Amino acid sequence: MPHQLRALVVDDDSNILSAFEDFFRKEHCAMLSASGAEEALRVLAGLEVDLVITDIKMPWGSGVDLCKKLKVSRPNLPVIVITGYPNLVPEADASRAGADYYFLKPLELDQLREAVRKCLRAATPAAGRHV
What we know:
single chain, about 130 residues, alpha/beta, Rossmann fold, 5-stranded parallel sheet, about 40% helix, globular
């Protein structure tokens, strides 16, 4: 039985999480969520995911710090960072932390969709998983 693609979205804004649930449902991808970096690490301790999308500014740990930790423990795991505060963490800093993509809020869905598809295709083994 083929593995269903899974994404973890890390954001402390429930509206953002809800929007991503709709987005991933349309992409035929399961979505897990976490409200901060610490919770994300707990979720990832017991599960494999194909993609992580994380906000940068959260009350329970930075998305950039989460990205750095993930790139050490899972270097091939694609990470997309999103932010409404580009002056707080510029794209170059997110890139140095290992982010594969960087997007500003409000998100451009077409650009995000293309980045997600590229990440999931890269994570997809040849044995029959489709995006």
